[in-house]
Amino acid sequence: MDELTTIILSGIAWDAIKGGIKITANYIKEKLSIWMLEDEKIEKISECMENIPKEYCLSKGMIKEYLDLNKGLIDILNQTQKEDFFQNIQQVDNKIATGNYFGTINYYENRNEENKNQMVYFKKLEKYLNSLQENKTKFEYKGDLEQTYNCLKELFILSIEKIEYIKDEHESHCYLFSDNENEEIAEKMAEITHLINEYNSYNRDRKELCNKTIDQMDEIGIKVMEFYDFYIQLIRKKLNEILYS
To answer: In sequence order, what are the residues at sequence separation of 6 or more whose Cβ sits closer than 8 angstroms to the Cβ of residue 218?
Structure first.
């Protein structure tokens, strides 16, 4: 199951808007039922989503930007992800303590060197993940979200800067990923690059804003958000795999 993020929540809200469905607490609770969340957390998430201002309900990207500005919501999502992660660690610790992790304690001890290498790899991945998350704030819009060209343009520029940052970071950290993972990452990056090139080609000599330009900017922004979430979840998945290896 995917981790619960604002991009998933914005998708739930956007699907409701496109379908002419009113976003209510009951609707949100139903959509979140597949996640193992406490009722209190579901209530707080519902409160955030059923009160999205109309000016932000113009696209999935705008909805996500609005949700990202809600510190209370972000804290809930981060807390949920950390609880899941550390629960996995605790489960592994329990298996090791009872001799059930590798079958016997002796077998585990015979793999000390392998485990040491795995731990070094784990720490490198963890450090990289922390660095990406700490630098995420550099690409967050600091102003008030408005349906204006300047606001859309600024959000678009931040998206471009964000994907360029991830490209540079991945180039120096690609050794942490398998060949298949690097191929998948390259494909997703190439798709975004293609969209950016199309945008640049269409708008090179254009002086006035048009609907197609707005659609292009919004599509690129959403693709960048989706790629960032995919990339972060991939690293978290690799960390969890090490814990269970």
So the answer is: 59, 60, 61, 62, 152
56: which 2 tokens? Answer: 């932000």
Which conformational region is residue 22 in: left (phi greater than 0), alpha (psi within -120 to 50 degrees), or beta?
A: beta
Closest CA to 68 of 229, 239, 195, 220: 229
Question: Model's pTM, two decimal places?
Answer: 0.58
Position 165 scores a pLDDT of 92
Write the pLDDT tens digit of every residue in 129-171: 888 888 888 888 777 666 677 778 888 888 999 999 999 999 9
Cα Rg of the chain (Å, integer): 21
The parts of the chain modelled with pLDDT lower than 50 are 1, 82-111
Place of tokens 């932000």: 56
Please tell me the distance from the alpha carbon of residue 189 to that of residue 191, in angstroms, as a whole number: 5
- Take residue 196 and report the two structure tokens written for it: 């950016």
CA atoms of 128 and 148, how far apart (whole Å): 36
Q: Which helix (H) or strand (E) holds 38?
A: none
